[in-house]
Amino acid sequence: MSLVRPLASALALILAAPALASPGYDAVDPMIGTSGGGHTYPGASAPFGMVQLSPDTDTSCVIRACYAHAAGYQYNDPTIQGFSFTHFSGAGHSDLGDFLIAPVSGDAAPLEPGDPGKPGSGYRSTFSHASEKAHPGYYAVNLDSQKVMAELTAGTRIGVARFTFANWQARQGLVLDLRSSLYNYPGKTIWSSIRLRPDGTVTGCRQTRGWAPDRILCFAMRFNLTIDSHSFVNTETDIPYKGFQGPGRDTDDVAQREGRAIVARFEFGLANDFSHTTHPLEVKVGISSVDEAGAIANLDSEPGSFDDIYSKTKASWEDALNAVDLDAPAAMKTSLYTALYHSLLAPSVASDVDGRYRGTDNQVHEAKDFTFRSTFSLWDTFRAEHPLLTIIQPERTNADFIRSLVESQKQSPFGILPVWQFQGRETWCMIGYHAVPIIADAYLKGIKGFDADEALHAMVASATYGPYGDLADYMKLGYVPIDKEPEAASKTVEYAYDDWTIAQMAKAMGNANIAATFAKRAANWRNGFDPKTGWVRARLSTGQFREPFDPVSIKYGSDYTEGNAWQYSWFMPQDEGGLIRALGGDAKTVAKLDAMFGYDNSKLDYSNSEDIAGLIGQYIHGNEPSHSVSYLYSYAGQPWRTQERLKQIVDSQYKPTPDGLVGNDDLGQMSAWLLFTGLGFYPVTPGSLQYVIGRPFVDHATLNLPDGKRFAILTEGLGDDHPYVAKVLLNGKPLDKGYITHAQIEAGGELRFVMSATPNKTWATAKAARPYSMTAY
């Protein structure tokens, strides 16, 4: 008979999807966003977990050529290189991809990944999507070239892989590649080390210079099988590796190795004994940004087998996803629950089980009574992701997220809050000081659990540090001059909004001086607004607007950040009423909004702008500056137009398929937008304590609030032929406002929408019924 058993029959039980009990859990599809520009990963992570164990299909590309592989996995790739333990979900840039492992079988197994176009040329393997299974906390795939079934799961600080070898007479092997990384390039790995300890634990660290400079990460790895043989090779200095040659004949069986290009091979004997008993290989890994001892402690803190860890993580996901109980048409239900799932992946745990973590100063600190979190994509997530978490994860928002931001400010060499931080390291990516609205929004919603005076101090320090983004000129002139600082038009309006949130929090705390100072700065958006043209524009130090001016031009490092005048001329969420007056009133504002959505882009080429995706005219849903624009019709007295635009956006920008996100999910922001919008309201202005009503896309939903209260959303007449809101009732009474408040949600109750085939052109149109604005409409 054949000595190689058919993979399908040998692994039939493993391939069967785990039993799924939670409706929310069952509805999630982690494959959404793994194709095109969504940049999500399909692998395993616990809610807000430190480890994201996921397949990498190709790490051979470098810098901008690797944009499509920012999460390691690209759905259309034909091979899987291996599985690494750290990933971003939907970022527009990348790093990470740490400690890649790949199962190998047979003699002379290679230590190089090989050519993606030449199957069998390395340790990478072909695969089929038909064999993939992806659920929150679980991923599985058949590696066809290696004849191995791979399964992944993760705990809070650990990842576990299980490999079942179908070729039962082949040796089970594993490659650990410390060279591999996402956005790889020569010299990215500064140094790495590996050692085999007497108890069989493998530990090591590596230091990289990537998106975050000088990042250190360590690991501790254990196996359920005894290591028969190992090889630690430095491919930068060693003779070419010729493959496994039998026990005791590896090229290098030393217990420890250091260098810039370390790759290891482990061998565990035959996959099956002659009684046909299968012995899958389980690989359990803990990671730490502190040291090997921290990685070992993290590994020890979560005992158990693959099945034990998966069972606990599955229960954690069921609990987290149960924060929202919703029913909607099948495709929408999948999209919304997946959006909720993606919203719960970050900010991620960054401190070890003993509380130690590496901070922004690259020193080791200790979080004594909270869990330090990192992975803050703040320019993106202040808009909807963090406001969502204040509703469904308030306990993490206060005890962990806010305190982590404030502690980072204390440790910062410049004394400012994080901008774009991961694993405690700062990248300085994007603009603004958007940790500020996150803190203010949480405080104003009654989320305490942190020292408000310390937090306000950190906010003010960030907003007054002159060298950052030319705040010195901003404080002097009331705007950022373009001849001193790139992207000045965007920075002026974003700083002004952040300033408004400082004023709101200071006022609530009774600090009149700070409140007055920053309330004045909140009006600085007007200094970037050109009343002659109706655009937010860049100004020179002399006060003149820069010429020439083209409102559709998108160039990196120019007047705007990842956008143009069309997107940024609407960004004054604290004062949309003031903008409407500046534009000449409601009718002219609506006309300009219509012109934005209806703009003919046929003669424009944005192909070199990676983040410009999901265009509807000059509305760009694939990037964040446009995210609140569709709701602005409501500010101009035409909420039925918001309802029309929301259907247009949802129908064209989201679907439950691998290419179902038109742009980077950006650590949950694209997903949080959809979830809020699906429920029928959106936080246009975090810090205002209001959510602007749009229209729902669910039949019903319930927010199961942490204090045991419930807030229900019910929709009568939902359907494509009923796109408009006829009326809204809150707790059975007509709601004449175009918004609901955070307090109304927290109190529990029912928000009921009655849908219609025709628009209601009288509901919430009065100026008194419109959402918050710091100046009058």
Characterize the structure shown.
With 777 residues, the chain is an alpha+beta fold. Among the domains are: 7-318, Beta-galactosidase, Chain A, domain 5, CATH 2.70.98; 365-465, alpha-1,2-mannosidase (Glutathione S-transferase Yfyf (Class Pi), Chain A, domain 2, Up-down Bundle), CATH 1.20.1050.60. The strands form eleven sheets. The protein has a nine-stranded antiparallel beta sheet. It has a six-stranded mixed beta sheet with strand order 18-32-33-37-34-35. Helix 10 packs parallel to helix 13 (488-509) and helix 13 runs antiparallel to helix 14 (512-521). The chain is globular and about 75 Å long. The termini are far apart. It holds the Pfam family Glyco_hydro_92N. InterPro entries: 6-hairpin_glycosidase_sf, GH-type_carb-bd, GH92_a_mannosidase_put, GH92_N, Glyco_hydro_92, PNGase.
Record keyword descriptors for this entry.
single chain, 777 residues, alpha+beta, Beta-galactosidase, Chain A, domain 5, Glutathione S-transferase Yfyf (Class Pi), Chain A, domain 2, nine-stranded antiparallel β-sheet, six-stranded mixed β-sheet, 21 helices, disordered N terminus, peptide-N4-(N-acetyl-beta-glucosaminyl)asparagine amidase activity
Taking Cα atoms only, what radius of gyration do you get, to the nearest Å?
Answer: 27 Å
The major pleated sheet works out as: 9 strands, antiparallel
Q: Helix content range of the residues, please? A: 25-40%
Distance between the termini: 83 Å
How many strand units? 37
Name the CATH architecture of the domain at 7-318: Distorted Sandwich
The poorly predicted ranges are 1-20, 240-251
The overall average pLDDT, rounded, is 92
**CATH class identity of the domain at 7-318:** Mainly Beta
SSE-based structural type? alpha+beta
